Amino acid sequence: MPNLQNAKKALRQSDKRAQRNKTVKAEIHSLRVKIRKALTAKKVDEALEIARLVGKKLDKAAQKNVFKKNTVARYKSRIMKKINDLKKA
């Protein structure tokens, strides 16, 4: 446990930020699972709609430094690649 007042405040801030980041990551994870399920069920329209939502959430998370920029780009790229492959098939 921190002894100094500023260290105590830093710990409180860190805990708050970690909790906020955790909820954002959990929400994005659940949406990515929904996309995978839609893709396995071959529901392209539904997957595309969810992908747009995930893209927005990922961009916002990158903006808030929850995810790194390249991580977001990689996630979005993989999602769109799978959707485009399903469209072609």
TrEMBL record:
<dbReference type="GO" id="GO:1990904">
    <property type="term" value="C:ribonucleoprotein complex"/>
</dbReference>
<dbReference type="GO" id="GO:0005840">
    <property type="term" value="C:ribosome"/>
</dbReference>
<comment type="similarity">
    <text>Belongs to the bacterial ribosomal protein bS20 family.</text>
</comment>
<dbReference type="InterPro" id="IPR036510">
    <property type="entry name" value="Ribosomal_bS20_sf"/>
</dbReference>
<keyword id="KW-0689">Ribosomal protein</keyword>
<dbReference type="InterPro" id="IPR002583">
    <property type="entry name" value="Ribosomal_bS20"/>
</dbReference>
<dbReference type="Pfam" id="PF01649">
    <property type="entry name" value="Ribosomal_S20p"/>
</dbReference>
<keyword id="KW-0694">RNA-binding</keyword>
<keyword id="KW-0699">rRNA-binding</keyword>
<keyword id="KW-0687">Ribonucleoprotein</keyword>
<dbReference type="GO" id="GO:0019843">
    <property type="term" value="F:rRNA binding"/>
</dbReference>
<dbReference type="GO" id="GO:0006412">
    <property type="term" value="P:translation"/>
</dbReference>
<feature type="compositionally biased region" description="Basic and acidic residues">
    <location>
        <begin position="12"/>
        <end position="23"/>
    </location>
</feature>
<feature type="region of interest" description="Disordered">
    <location>
        <begin position="1"/>
        <end position="23"/>
    </location>
</feature>
<comment type="function">
    <text>Binds directly to 16S ribosomal RNA.</text>
</comment>
<dbReference type="GO" id="GO:0003735">
    <property type="term" value="F:structural constituent of ribosome"/>
</dbReference>
<protein>
    <recommendedName>
        <fullName>Small ribosomal subunit protein bS20</fullName>
    </recommendedName>
</protein>
